[in-house]
Known about the structure:
It is a single chain. With 244 residues, this protein is α/β, with parallel strands linked by helices. The protein is built from 8 helices and 6 strands. The N and C termini lie far apart (49 Å).
Amino acid sequence: MTFAHLTFAHLRRRLTQARAWAADYAYVGYWQVHGFLFRRDPSAYLAPSNAPDAPDVPRRPVVLVPGVYETWQFLRPLAEALSARGYPVHTVAPLGYNRGRVDRMALLVQQYLVEKDLSGAVVVAHSKGGLIGKQLMLLPEGGRRVEHMIAVNTPFSGSVYANFFILPSVRAFAPRNKFLRRLQESRDVNARITSVYSSFDPHIPGGSNLPGARNIQLETMGHFRPIGDPRLLAVLEQELEREP
């Protein structure tokens, strides 16, 4: 292969990634506005028995944990699809836009699990939500009540881009962050985690592969777009139906 061919292939890959990046921001922009203007009561997802696709056999509760600057409304495509398939879907309102520290957010989710007396729960998380979910699984009650977590595009090893941000809520994802390093070194719960990630994630150049976990790469490009991709839903169904 000539140098010219290599250069052309590199340019084509960069253009593909640039288009994916633009589509990613278009997606997140749409859903942030849609979720703000057309809010839905999350209690609608707690009774899946009314859904046409719901089975007669009760299914494990699913707890949604969004990423930074996301409310649960951003994960509504997943909430609607999972509820229609018979899963009671829970959201944690106190998380708000999820700007707080990972450890504090994990405590809020643990408190919700205790208040609702949930057990055998599966956490479905996006981005920062996966860090919260892992920290939750390391807590006494959280570890006992959460059976599994499916994390989508989570920066388990951080993101180098976080170094360029002033906001503490984003700088917390820097690879050298002390809390993130401690969380990374805690591998006891990794076997109960499925890490799903895009083939190209513009926000996490280092990827979301988690040692000891079940790692699944999607063909989808982008950090946010997988939330609305049917291929992610297929993975969620597959993982949720796996034996504990």
